[in-house]
Amino acid sequence: MFFGQKIHPLNFDRAERFHLDGEAVKLSGPGMALRVGCETVMDGCCRLRFENGQVADSTQYSDAVRPAYRRGAVATPRLEADTARFVTAIGQIELQPTRLRVAMTEVMLETVADGIGCCGEALLLNFALTGVNGCYGLGERAGPLNKLGQTADFLNVDVVAVFRHTYARDDYDPTYVAIPLAILKVGERFLGVFFDNPHRVVMDVGKTRPGEFWYQAFGGVTDLYLLAGPTLREVTRRYAALTGRAPLPPLWALGYHQCRWGYRHEREFRALAEQFAAADVPVSALWYDIDYMDEYRLFSWDRLDFPDPAGLNRELKDAGIHAVTIVDPGVKREPGYPVYDSGREKAVFCQTASGREYVGKVWPGDTVFPDFSLPAARAWWAAYLADFLRDSAVDGVWLDMNDPATGYSRTEEMCFQHGQAPHERYHNQYAHFMALASRAACEQRDPDGRPFLLTRSACAGTQRYTAVWTGDNASNWDHLRMALPCSLNLSLSGIAFNGPDVGGFMDDTNAELLVRWHQACCLFPFFRNHSSRDSRFQEPWQFGPATLAAIRGAIRLRYRLLPYLYQCFFAHWRDGDPVIRPLLYHYDHPEYAHLGDQYLVGDALLVAPILHGEGQGPESIQRGVKYQERRIALPAGWWFDLNHGVWVQGGRVLHYAAAADELPLFARDGAVLPYYAGPLRNSFMHLSAIELHLFCHDQPAQFEYTLDDRETRRYEQGTWGLAQVTAEVREERTTVKIEESGDYPRETVRFTPVVYGHPEVRKLELTVNGRAEERKLRTEQREWLCRNLMVQA
Ligand code: MIG
What we know:
This is Alpha-glucosidase. It holds the Pfam family Glyco_hydro_31_2nd. InterPro entries: Gal_mutarotase_sf_dom, GH, Glyco_hydro_31_C, Glyco_hydro_31_N_dom, Glyco_hydro_31_TIM, Glyco_hydro_b. The chain is of the alpha+beta class. About 20% of the residues lie in helices and about 30% in strands. Strand 15 (about 180-185) and strand 16 form a beta hairpin. Helix 6 packs across helix 8 (about 430-445), helix 10 (about 510-520) packs parallel to helix 11 (about 545-560) and helix 11 (about 545-560) runs antiparallel to helix 13.
């Protein structure tokens, strides 16, 4: 067996007839009995459940869908001569023994002839790709943005462990995350097909057979959710509503994070805090990798290297730096170690089919694994973790090795539910339930606070509990380029809070790569520099003053725009829009179907980073300064070029030259960017004064600024307000109106408008909640504040 292997379509049995079976339709033939039921789940979404008679247990074990949507309104089939018809919220669904056809108002999706089959426990659905010119989502993937012509294996693995010699390539498959959601672009319209099945599945999107889209599940029950468009935005929002949107993180979690495998002594952490201060680079968290532990025992500290972890972490926090510790799932199998003894006594560890404790071989040596599918195991885990977080004054949890990684010991022998449930049922959900239990620990520790968790593995729905990083990448340009489509597709797949290891994890980075990586990702939802103990150090100051200055510029840019990023997270929580988006999220142009080297942050900013190094692509030298060049597709309308301080007209491709310390960045006409202009002191940021940077060329500008306490979970009960901002620039006058509403005290934030790119503007008329306010007009005529920051530092 090798990854990506499929079942030949001719090996599937096909049905010959069907009949009504309760409220479902049963397709049957030699070797085959497949029950298909249909429900309307919510507006624009319905579910087809496929129960293969050869699968002994017809329970759906996936935890992907929010409980509210697990039951829908049953659509009773009407049987006609050779067709069963379901009438649903998205349109008509027609089923024949070997064919399925979904006719939505705007698009049609149908299988090829003989498109439905079973082979033992496996299920085949083979759709025709007629008219399909794009495919997105598919969770976390290497490769290009558009997955048409690609294949994807949905099995969580420890990538570097299984691709030991090829991890540095950019085409590995599978990855750490399994989210079987495909968003198809049919002509100009979109529809989503989410195959909810926690078992291993594969998709082949026209690779093996052009024109055919294979979904093959190797076991379990498949719930096919059809998500109506017609826009990408509607599909994405519906999927997010179905599987859950990320809760709001604390503001500090959106800052810059510094991590490295190999930091192993308290004096290194103190030195890091000092070095960041000396380098004048803000940092919001320092991360403890596995070396903080006492011989890799969970919930312990090596007391020689860290005599007083709580004291150290409080000291860091006084400087605005939070502490995050890694927490692996594996428990050292060591009688006398209390965590092991108590888990054994409570029977919370995974077992083999015959009931032995399942043993793997990872960092602690012989290791056992909590069975997070058991509520009792989750409660046991949460209690330990909550105590650990409290006792050590740790603010965030980093969940690693939860693919799960078991070393040389095969994973398949790991069973669940006291040996009763086969490995495949929970393999892809192992990290998910670990995250659920770990989030519960954070909530126990601080009932009103906002947890911050980061995980390596995940499945559909895991965004409800944690952020995701894209695992062990390598320090090379291919992996920098891959980071964009990978995070964009992950964002479309419900995981809005994600990002790669900036600088690259494996192998040695270099000055230029490190700078470009910081620039490319400084507006990503998650922004962490991380590297392996075997690689060269890559903290911002490791490559000399010019490199430091460029990196500092990118990091400061992020901090200046943290209020905007925070607004994007709030919008995600409210509506399901991802924080970073491919251009085709908002703009319709044939080229954008493949555009994976530039992206939007919210709907206001367009980022087109430099993704190649010196000598690898277009470049030039002008007046002694080196520039890297690239093409930038600028959608129609006016854009403000934040490097050059000029309006440029879109609807065309620009050829752009960026010096080493420049990130090509554009603000949309009509955008308002909330900007933090106060002092930069790590995670300390009082957002009681916000600048509203106004970009009005032809368009009036508009923005909904959400007001909340940024710390507690009261927003979940509706304790938040809106400041509705509208602005217009006409000749020499700027008119700005701010109207507050909602369940939040008025005028807790002082807003200052800043007008861009209008040298002729002289007057400001500002009204706040219906009252005229005197405020000096501020304009930026040449360059943007951030560029000044980036270049002059
Ligand atoms: O076997 O904890 O992906 O981020 O630094 C390697 C050590 C285990 C893998 C994670 C990586 C982390 C490393 N871990």
